[in-house]
Predict the 3D structure of the following.
Amino acid sequence: MSGETRTDGGAADDASDGDAVVAAVEAVADRIEGERDHLTDLDSAIGDADHGGNMARGWAAAAEAARDLDDPDPQTVCKTVGKTLMAEVGGASGPLFGGSLVFASAELDGGVTPESAVAFAETYLEKVEDRGDARVGDQTMVDALTPAVHTFKKSIETDELPPLEALAKAVDAAERGVAFTVPIRAKKGRASYLGWRSVGHQDPGATSALFILEELLAVAADRLDAEVPDVDATSPTIPDEGAAESDDATPPDPEDG
Amino acid sequence: MVGLVVVSHSERAAEGIVEVAAEMAGDTRIEPVGGDGQGGIGTVPDDIGAAIDAADDGDGVVVLVDLGSAVMNADVAVELSDAEAVIADAPVLEGAVNAAVAATDPSATLESVHEQAEAARGMEKL
């Protein structure tokens, strides 16, 4: 099963993008397996200590299912991976990581473009928020995904950065979001039962989301034969001259009544 | 006729709840579904989806759920299903019994069965 060679079928672009998505899923599976104990340690502090094992098992199965696809276009790979995660990952991580992927995959119907990637990211975040009834500040994966998705969208749509740079900024934003989960109190998930004792702990789901994004970035850079750009999500990246001409770009003066 | 699905983390709990509800259910289709598919505790959206399909005869399905991820997985299954299905925000056993009774009413609709299932939230026992 695992030693099968990949077949190249279908339209050239879709097939090579599909291959890239399969490679990304394999990279995520390897990373999560490598971080299994780390994730479990995070979860044992505030949850039921099953996040590492559940995610590792689910992503291993997802990588296998993705490899087994005959004609992998990106949408099909994402849908297959999502379905497999839903079936194999126990607890809430199945519907949150996997279910959201199944629905977001519909955005890749026309292939992977900067625009469809933004739509994919937005749908994914929306599904996680709705399904988990979680918002920023609840100490969940939403805290990592929200800054990542917002930064990615802004980098593509407003700043018109190259996609790899936009993704690198999104990863940096996710990292800051994971750090933000530490000093706040959990309002959703099992950690919320701990009340104030959840303060001071890093959320395992947010951490997993960051690992996934880091692997997407690494595989994207590898496929483009490029270095991972060194970026900072908190730098505004607004062109100086354009900003002055825009009506809404002038920051309000806090001293003004 | 409106169908019912009972979702529990435990396959045996789902079957037991269906056993209780079926006493009152007449010809209503009630499908139990639960477990992680490997003999353990959990729920699987595809399994819930299959149960919804089995319970549906075109008039819709009310889904009763136990806790936490069962609710999320049922939510995914409902969103992916072609059948008209709705989750009842109700205690799973009491809701199933209420819904089973409501479904036997000749004028029952998806809305009326859903409403009766949720009426179980206010059920007092003492």
About this structure: Residues 1-10 of chain A have pLDDT under 50 and may be disordered.
